[in-house]
Every structure is written in structure tokens, then in C-alpha cells.
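Forum > Structural Biology > Help requests

Title: Can anyone predict the 3D structure of ATP synthase subunit delta?

Hi all, first post here. I have the sequence for ATP synthase subunit delta but no way to get a structure on my laptop. I'd be grateful if someone could post the C-alpha cells.
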Amino acid sequence: MAETIVSGMAGRYATALFELADEAGSIDAVKADLDQLVALIGESADFARLVKSPVFSAEEQERAVTAVLGALGIAGLSANFVKLVAQNRRLFALPGMIKGYAALVAAQRGEVTAEVTVAEPIGDAHLATLKAALAEQTGKDVGLDVIVDPSILGGLIVKLGSRMVDASLKTKLNSIRHAMKEVR
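Reply #1:
Sure, ran it for you. C-alpha cells for ATP synthase subunit delta below:
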């Protein structure tokens, strides 16, 4: 099951962590810890730089990560995993590993996540309507990962698994532009 959901180096780490967490009965606890790390990467430019920069040595990364984990109250399997990633000089791939772990947890729960790209933030009512429509279509509980990208001009793009629906204004305008070129 896990092999079909995540792949690559980040996927291998995510799968290993998921299997260990499953054996220990701590899937939800590990997910909560990893969610804290994702939030910190998004909030702290210094931590994001530490995660992404190859300039820091493995020892420096491990020391810094240990301090951050302690400050966040993250211990056990989650802490050991992040320290191992730092020791192996793979900290740059941590966000991908966390995303892969979240996909494995969602798959185990029978959930799917749709990536929704919009030109500007949309309200909760629209999100609820979209979520209900996608749940009806898939027959599963659907989580939404909303990305705001003003370059699409309007409308939305929905990616769910291998399917994509592009109802963006940018794509429609490009289609019209292409059709007009053929008319000449």
C-alpha cells in the first residue's frame, strides 16, 4: 500500500517512519509532532534556512534541531527521526518526508487530499461546498490543501490524485488566444 502513495528518497523515509509509528501505536502523536515542525518551517525564516541550506554541517544541523525539538516538546520516535535525517544530511528533504507521512496517514484513514489553487483566498462556505462535491465524487473524506496563486487570475485548479480540473481564468484566456491564432 505505502509504495504506491509515496516515492523517492523522501518517500522511503516517510514510509519507514510510518511503519515504525504504526508498530509503536503512535501514528497520531508522530503526525502532531511533524505538523508542529511544518508550522515552524513556515513561521521561522531561520529554521527554514537551517532545513534548506547545505552550508551547515551535519553536527551543526543536529545540534540546532535537537534544541528546536526540545523547545517544542517533541521527543521519542519523532525526535529520533528528525535527528537521524539531520545526521544523514537529508534535512533539506524534511518537508517532503512530512508530506509523504501525512499522505500515508490519510490513506490509512481512507482520506484523500485535494490540492486547490485559487487566485485569492476563498471563504469557508465555498470551501465546504467544494469539499462536499469532491467527497460525493470520490466517496471518501476529502481534505483540502489550498494554495493562493494570483497568476491564475481567477477560477480554480483542483488536483486530486492523478486527476486535475483546470477551471482557471488564465487557462481559459490562453485557450481563447490559441483559438484566435488558428483563425488567422
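The longest strand covers residues 111-118. The beta strands are 111-118, 141-148, 155-160, 163-168.
Shout if anything looks off.
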